[in-house]
Design a protein that fits this description.
The complex is a heterodimer of chains A (384) and B (666).
Chain A lengths: L1 E2 L2 E2 L5 H5 L10 H5 L10 H7 L6 H5 L12 H5 L6 H15 L4 H13 L27 E7 L2 H5 L4 H13 L4 E3 L9 H5 L3 H17 L1 E7 L2 H10 L6 E4 H10 L12 E4 L13 H9 L4 E3 L29 H12 L3 E4 L2 H14 L6 E4 H8 L3
Parallel strand pairs in A: 3-4, 3-5, 5-6, 7-8, 7-9, 9-10
Antiparallel strand pairs in A: 1-2
Helix pairs in contact in A: 3-6, 9-17, 13-14, 15-16
Chain B lengths: L6 E6 L11 H9 L4 E7 L5 H14 L3 E6 L2 H14 L7 E5 L1 H5 L5 H19 L8 E4 L3 E5 L3 H12 L3 E5 L14 E2 L4 E2 H14 L3 E4 L2 E9 L2 E8 L14 H5 L6 E2 L8 E2 L2 E2 L11 E2 L5 H5 L7 H5 L12 E7 L1 E4 L3 E3 L16 E3 H8 L11 E2 L4 E2 L3 E8 L15 H15 L4 E6 L9 H10 L2 E5 L4 E5 L2 E8 L4 E7 L1 E6 L1 E3 L3 H8 L26 E3 L9 H21 L1 E4 L4 E3 L9 H5 L5 E8 L2 E8 L9 H5 L5 E3 L4 H12 L3
Parallel strand pairs in B: 1-2, 1-3, 3-4, 6-7, 6-18, 7-10, 18-31, 20-29, 23-24, 23-29, 24-25
Antiparallel strand pairs in B: 5-32, 8-9, 11-12, 12-17, 13-14, 15-16, 19-30, 21-22, 26-27, 27-28, 33-36, 34-35
Helix pairs in contact in B: 1-5, 2-3, 5-18, 6-7, 6-15, 11-12, 12-13
Classes of the chains: A alpha/beta (384), B alpha/beta (666).
C-alpha cells in the first residue's frame, strides 16, 4: 500500500480496506457497542486482530461476528474515521463465500435471489397488501413526483401491511402526485449486505438502479429506514433523491395538508431507529410529525437521538438467533418506556416494530401499552 | 551591464546529500564549457567557512563578477552566499542558486538521471545570472512601539518584556479585564501554584508600567502600513462608566436590579453577576462595566424609576451617554496573542453534556474547585434531583481532541495534565471519593509532568485505559459506557459526576484578526507560523508575530516562553530603529501600464494600488507598488496583460532564457 511517499509492506487486504492502522485502540467502538451488555462481541479486538492475515479464518469462525446489529454506533464514535463493523461484515462474507452459513440465512439469501424478498414468499403476491385499495401505480417513463418503495417486510408481513395500507388511504385524500412500483419491486439489499452476501448485494444494486431509474421519479419515498439508508449510501447511480416517509409527512403536516379526524389522547415516546438516526441523522422529522397529531403528548427516552439504544432488529438478526440469555435490548427499551409512563412506543421502522412488540408481549405489558408505527397512528386520526 | 560576465560556478557535495545521486565532478566539468563560465569547482560543504573562502578568493583573484552556487534550496543559504559575495565588493544580487538538492538529488535515485538534471539546472542558472541587474536594498525608520492584541498570559508577558526594554506598548484586550483564561484557573500544574497568585502581580505590573498603555474592552479596527510603520485604529467600546471616576467599590453591582440574574462568563455559566460588573475581583483595570446586552437602561431606555447603579455610585461615575472612542497610533511591530476557545462539549452529544447538569467540562471544574468560584470551592453538583457531593467521579480525556469525527485531529496538549491536577484537587477536597480517569494515552511530556502524574496516581486516582463512548442515566447515577481496553472488558460505570477534559480550539472570532493582518491558518486552523521549527513566532506578514495558544494549544510554561520569543523578535526592528526593504520587488513600467488593476486584485500582500498620473495633460490610472509590502512573489506579473509589472531579478527577459535552458536538449 502507498501512503504518501512511503511503501508500506506486509499488509493484508483488510488492513488497507478498513484502515486498520488508523486505529488507536481507544475502545470507543466497543465502549459504545450496545450488544456488549449481552453478547461476547468486542469489535475493537477484531479491528486489532484482523491485521494478521493468518488469523482471518479463525476470526471468521467466531460466533460473535453474528452478534453485530449494524447499528453503526462504533463507526460514528470512532475518532479516527474507521468503520469497525465493516470488519465483522467482511468476516461474514468469508463465511458466506465458504457456504458454511446457518440454513435460515441461506434460505433468506436464496429467496432474495429467486423471489426478490428474504421472506421466502413468491414475487407474485408482493402486492397482495393492496387488495381492496385504489392504488396509483407508477409507469416507466412517466414522470412522477413521489415514487414509493415498500420494504419487503412491510409488503409481506400481515402485521406490517397496515403501514402501506394506511399510507395509500391517506395519500388518496391528498392532492399529491404519487405512484407505487408493483411486483417488480425488489429487496433493497440492506440485510443482504449485513449478512455478508457481497455478490448478491452488488447484483441488487445494479438491477434496482435500472428499475428505479426507469421511472421518471422526482424522488423516491422509502417506507423503511433500511431501504432509505442503503439507497443513499450504496446506490451512487440513482437519479432520484431518496427520502424517508417521515420526511415527506413532516412536509405535509407543516403545510397543514393532513385532514385530522380525531385525537390521540396518549403519551407517546419515540424510539429512534439506528438506520434513520445514527446512520442518517434524521431525528427531528418523525418527532415533529408525532407532535402534530392532535392530543399526543410526546415523551423522550433518556437514551434518545444520538444516544438511542438499538433494538437489535438489524444486521441479519431476523435470521440469526442470539444465544444470550441476558435481557434483550428491546426489553430494556420497553421497560424504560413503561417507567416513563408511555402508552405508546412509536417507531418508524418495520424491524423496530417487530422486535419491540415481541419484547412487550414477552414482558406481558400488552394491557398497559403498545408499540405502533407512526403510519399506524396517523391512520387512526386521519379522516376515513 | 558594462563588464562582460565572468562567472564562477561552485557545485556542492553537501556531504553525500548531493554527491550520492549527482556526479558533482561531471557537473562542474560540464559547466566549465558553458558560456561566460570562468571557473567551476566542487567542494564538500560550500556553506562552510572554507567553502565561502573559496568563492571570495576567486572573486578577488580571478575578477569574477557573477557567482552561481549549485547546492541546496535558496531558502537555506541564499543569504549566506549573498553576504559572502558582498564582502568582496560584488553586488549581492549578482548571485544565483541552482537548487540541485531538494529539486534534484533528494528526489532522484539514479545517478545518471540525477547528474543529467543537475546539469540542466546549472545551465539554466548560467543563462540567468548573466542577465541579472545590480539591486540595492533600502532602509526605512521603524516606530519604536508595539501593538499586542489579546491580554492573556501571552500578551501580558510579551508586553512586560517589550516595555521593560524601554519601548512603548499598546496592549489591546477585548474583554473588560486583562488576564485571559489563566485568570479562570484555580491552581496550575505541575507545581500547583495558585493561578491568581502568580498572574495578578503581572496584571498589576501591566497597569502601572509607564510604557504600557492598556486598551481594555477594545478592538483593533484597522491596520495599515508595513513592518516598522503600522498605523493602528482601535475602538474602545463604551463602558458607560467613567473609568477616571470609578473607584471599583462595587456598590453599583450590589444595587443593580439585575444583581445575581445574569450568567457570569468568567464562572463558565455556573455563577451569576449583575448587569454592571467587574468580571472577577482581581480584574485589571479594577473598573466596572455595564453590559449593554442586558442592562435595562440600555436595552429598554428605562430601569424602574431610575437606574439603581447611578443612585448607588458615590463617585458619580455612571454615564449612560458615553460613546465608543477611537484611538489612533503608530507601531513598528505587532504581536497577536488572542488565545483559544475551549471545545464545545455539546458537539459530542453522546456525552450528554446538554442533558445532565452533573456532566461538566474541565473549565467548569476549574471554577468549581476555586475558592473564588460560584460555590466558594465546595464540590457540589445537581444530579437532576438534588444537590450532592459527588463520591464517584469519572474524568474523560480527549474530548474534542484527536478526534476526526469533530474535525480536530490534533492533541490539545494540556488536558492530560489539567485532568491530573483536577483529580488531585478533588482528592484533597473529597478524601473518600472514588476517582477514575478514562484515557487513551497519558501525555506527560513537560518538566515535572511525569512526576506529577506519578504522584496523582498514587493518591488513589484510578487510571483506566479506554475512552468512553456514551453517557446515560440510571436512577440518580450517570452511566459511563466504556471499554477497559487493557482487560478487554466492556463496562457500565455508575458515577455521580463526569468531568469532560475538553480540548483547545482556535477562537471562533479569529477571522477578524486574520483579515486585519493577512494571517493564514495551519491545518489545525490555529494561526500559522512562518516555519514550524525555525520561525515559530513569526508569520508570513513581516513585523507580525504570534504568541500563546492562538498559534496552537500549549500550557502556561510554553505560552510564556513563546511570548518572550515573540517579544524578542518584535524588538528587532524597534531596537535597530530601521527595517530593510526587500530589493527584489515588483516594478511598474508606467508608460505601458493600462491601469486595469488585475495586479491589484491578485496581490496577496495588498502591495499594489492604482494611482492617478498626468500624462501629456491626460489624467490616467497606473499601478504603483508599495516596496515595503511587496514580497516579489510575481503574482502580479503573471496576470498583467501588457507585461508592465515585473519583479526585479525575475523579469521576463531574465527568466525566459533560464526556462529555455531547462528545456534544452544538450
Ligand atoms: C481547563 C483548563 C485548565 C488549564 N490548566 C492549566 C494549568 O494548570 N497549567 C498550565 O500550564 N496551563 C493550563 N491550561 C492552559 C492555559 O490556560 C493556557 O496555556 C493559557 O491560558 C494560554 O494563554 P494565552 O494568553 O495564549 O490565551 P488566553 O488565556 O485565551 O488569552 C487570550 C486573550 O486574548 C483576548 N482576545 C482574544 N481575541 C481578541 C481580539 N480580537 N482582540 C483583543 N483581545 C482578544 C481574550 O479575551 C483573552 O483575554 C489550562 C487550560 C484549560 C482549558
Ligand atoms: S473507536 Fe476506532 S480508533 Fe478507537 S478502538 Fe475502535 S476502531 Fe480503533
Ligand atoms: S455496529 Fe453496533 S452492534 Fe455492530 S459492532 Fe458496531 S456498535 Fe456493535
Amino acid at each position: 500500500m502507498m501512503r504518501g511517499m512511503i511503501m508500506i509492506s506486509e499488509t493484508n487486504s483488510f488492513t488497507e480496506k478498513f484502515d486498520l492502522l488508523g486505529c488507536i485502540q481507544c475502545g470507543r467502538c466497543t465502549g459504545g457497542c450496545p450488544v456488549t451488555v449481552r453478547a461476547d462481541l468486542n469489535v475493537r479486538r477484531f479491528v486489532y486482530d484482523a491485521y494478521n492475515e493468518e488469523k482471518l479464518d479463525e476470526l471468521a469462525r467466531l460466533a460473535e461476528i453474528w452478534d453485530c446489529t449494524t447499528c453503526n454506533t462504533c463507526a460514528v464514535r470512532c475518532p479516527k474515521g474507521l468503520k469497525p463493523l465493516e470488519v465483522l461484515l467482511a468476516l461474514r462474507s468469508m463465511v458466506v463465500e465458504s457456504g458454511k452459513v446457518e440454513p435460515t440465512v441461506r434460505d433468506a439469501l436464496q429467496s432474495v435471489l429467486l423471489e426478490g424478498n428474504p421472506w421466502e414468499k413468491p414475487r407474485a403476491i408482493r402486492c397482495d397488501w393492496m387488495d381492496g385499495l385504489d392504488v396509483k401505480m407508477a409507469e416507466p417513463g412517466v414522470p412522477v413526483e413521489n415514487l414509493f418503495f415498500v420494504c419487503c417486510t412491510i409488503a409481506y408481513d400481515p402485521r406490517l401491511q397496515i403501514i402501506a395500507r394506511n399510507m395509500v388511504r391517506i395519500l388518496n385524500k391528498l392532492d399529491l402526485d404519487y405512484g407505487f412500483i408493483g411486483t417488480d419491486e425488489t429487496c433493497c439489499g440492506s440485510e443482504v449486505r449485513t449478512l455478508g452476501e457481497e455478490g448478491l448485494f452488488e447484483m441488487l444494486i445494479e438491477d434496482n438502479t435500472e428499475l428505479l431509474n426507469s421511472f421518471e421519479a422526482k424522488r423516491i419515498v422509502a417506507f423503511s429506514p433500511h431501504c432509505f439508508s442503503v439507497f443513499n449510501t450504496y446506490y451512487p447511480d440513482l437519479k432520484s433523491e431518496v427520502i424517508h416517509y417521515t420526511q415527506l409527512f413532516d412536509e405535509l403536516v407543516g403545510e397543514n395538508k393532513i385532514p385530522w379526524r380525531g385525537e390521540l389522547q396518549k403519551k407517546v415516546v419515540y424510539h429512534d431507529p439506528c438506520y434513520l438516526g445514527k446512520l442518517s441523522g434524521v431525528y427531528d422529522e418523525p418527532r415533529s410529525v408525532l407532535q402534530k397529531i392532535p392530543g399526543v403528548e410526546l415523551l423522550e427516552f433518556d437514551r434518545c437521538r444520538e444516544r438511542s439504544l438499538c433494538c437489535e432488529g438489524s444486521g441479519g438478526k431476523m435470521w440469526v438467533e442470539s444465544h444470550s440469555k441476558k435481557e434483550r435490548l428491546a426489553e430494556t427499551r420497553i421497560k424504560d418506556a413503561r417507567a416513563l409512563g408511555a402508552d405508546i412506543v412509536a417507531v418508524s421502522c418495520p424491524f423496530c416494530l417487530l422486535t419491540l412488540e415481541d419484547a412487550l408481549k414477552g414482558l406481558g405489558f400488552e394491557e398497559e401499552m403498545r408499540v405502533a408505527e407512526i403510519m399506524e397512528l396517523l391512520g387512526e386520526v386521519v379522516e376515513e | 551591464m558594462t563588464d562582460k560576465p565572468r562567472i564562477g560556478l561552485y557545485v556542492c557535495h553537501c556531504g553525500i546529500n548531493i554527491s550520492a545521486t549527482v556526479d558533482v565532478d561531471a557537473v562542474a566539468k560540464y559547466a566549465q564549457n558553458l558560456p561566460n563560465v570562468h571557473v567551476a569547482r566542487t567542494y564538500s560543504y560550500m556553506c562552510s567557512e572554507p567553502g565561502q573562502a573559496l568563492i571570495k578568493k576567486d572573486i578577488r583573484e580571478q575578477g569574477l563578477n557573477r557567482v552561481i552556487v549549485a547546492s541546496c534550496s535558496p531558502r537555506m543559504h541564499e543569504k549566506t552566499f549573498r553576504k559572502a559575495v558582498q564582502e568582496e565588493g560584488l553586488n549581492p544580487y549578482f548571485l544565483e542558486i541552482a537548487n540541485i538538492r531538494e529539486q534534484c538529488s533528494w528526489v532522484h535515485e539514479d545517478m545518471t538521471e540525477g547528474t543529467a538534471k543537475a546539469k540542466k539546472l546549472v545551465a539554466s542558472a548560467v543563462a540567468k545570472v548573466r542577465l541579472l541587474e545590480p539591486l540595492e536594498s533600502t532602509e526605512v525608520d521603524a516606530e519604536p512601539a508595539a501593538l499586542i492584541i489579546g491580554a492573556g498570559i501571552a500578551g501580558i508577558q510579551a508586553a512586560l518584556d517589550i516595555a521593560d526594554a524601554g519601548f512603548k506598548v499598546y496592549l489591546v484586550e477585548k474583554s473588560p479585564s486583562i488576564g485571559g483564561r489563566m485568570a479562570q484557573l484555580d491552581k496550575t500544574f505541575p507545581t500547583l501554584d495558585c493561578s491568581a497568585c502568580i498572574l495578578t502581580p503581572k496584571m498589576v505590573d501591566c497597569a502601572s508600567h509607564p510604557n504600557i498603555e492598556l486598551l481594555t474592552y477594545a478592538k483593533v479596527e484597522e491596520v495599515d502600513g508595513f513592518v516598522g510603520n503600522f498605523t493602528i485604529k482601535v475602538r474602545k467600546k463604551a463602558r458607560y462608566v467613567d473609568v477616571d471616576k470609578c473607584t471599583g467599590c462595587g456598590e453599583c453591582a450590589k444595587a443593580c436590579r439585575l444583581a445575581n440574574r445574569i450568567t457570569s462568563e468568567f464562572d463558565e455559566g455556573m455563577g451569576k453577576r449583575s448587569a454592571i460588573y467587574m468580571p472577577f475581583p482581581q480584574a485589571v483595570p479594577a473598573k466596572y462595566t455595564i453590559d449593554p446586552e442586558n442592562c435595562l437602561m440600555l436595552t429598554r431606555g428605562k430601569c424602574g424609576k431610575g437606574p439603581k447603579c447611578e443612585e448607588a455610585c458615590q463617585a458619580g461615575a455612571i454615564n449612560f451617554e458615553q460613546q465608543d472612542e477611537i484611538v489612533e497610533f503608530k507601531v513598528g511591530a505587532i504581536i497577536v496573542a488572542t488565545g483559544f476557545d475551549t471545545f464545545d462539549a455539546s458537539r459530542k452529544p453522546e456525552y450528554g453534556y446538554s442533558n445532565y447538569p452533573n456532566v461538566i467540562t474541565g473549565m467548569e471544574m476549574e471554577r468549581l474547585v476555586s475558592s473564588s468560584g460560584p460555590t466558594g470551592g465546595d464540590i457540589k453538583v445537581f444530579n437532576g434531583e438534588e444537590e450532592i457531593v459527588p463520591k464517584e467521579i469519572a474524568f474523560i480525556k480527549c474530548v474534542g481532541s484527536r478526534d476526526a469525527s469533530v474535525g480536530n485531529e490534533y492533541c490539545s496538549r494540556v488536558c492530560c495534565m489539567y485532568t491530573a491536577k483536577q483529580a488531585h484537587l478533588l482528592r484533597e477536597k473529597i478524601p473518600d471519593a472514588k476517582i477514575r480517569v478514562y484515557y487513551i494515552d497519558v501525555r506527560a511530556f513537560g518538566k515535572g509532568y511525569e512526576e506529577f502524574y506519578d504522584r496523582v496516581r498514587r493518591e488513589n486516582v484510578r487510571y483506566i485505559r479506554g475512552n468512553p463512548s456514551e453517557i446515560f442515566k440510571r436512577g440518580k447515577k450517570l452511566v459511563v459506557k466504556v471499554e477497559d481496553t487493557l482487560t478487554a472488558t466492556p463496562l457500565e460505570d455508575e458515577v455521580d459526576m463526569v468531568v469532560l477534559a475538553v480540548g483547545l480550539e482556535p477562537r471562533a472570532d479569529m477571522r477578524e484578526v486574520m483579515d486585519l493582518l493577512r494571517l493564514s491558518q495551519s491545518g489545525d486552523k490555529f494561526f500559522m507560523e512562518a516555519h514550524p521549527k525555525l520561525r515559530p513566532v513569526d508569520t508570513a506578514t513581516d513585523g507580525v508575530f504570534l504568541a500563546g495558544c492562538c498559534q496552537g494549544p500549549k500550557d502556561i510554561p510554553d505560552t510564556v516562553a513563546q511570548a518572550k520569543g515573540a517579544a524578542a523578535s518584535a524588538m528587532v526592528p524597534l531596537a535597530s530603529g530601521k527595517v530593510t526593504i526587500n530589493a527584489q520587488v515588483a516594478t511598474v513600467n508606467e508608460a505601458t501600464c493600462r491601469g486595469c488593476g488585475y495586479c491589484v486584485s491578485v496581490c496577496p500582500y495588498s502591495a499594489i494600488e492604482l494611482v492617478t498620473v498626468n500624462r501629456f495633460g491626460h489624467e490616467l490610472e497606473v499601478a504603483r507598488v508599495n516596496e515595503a509590502l511587496c514580497k516579489g512573489c510575481g503574482s502580479c506579473s503573471s496576470v498583467c496583460l501588457s507585461d508592465s509589472i515585473q519583479p526585479k531579478s525575475f523579469r521576463d527577459r531574465q527568466i525566459l532564457p533560464q526556462i529555455a535552458a531547462l528545456g534544452g536538449t544538450r
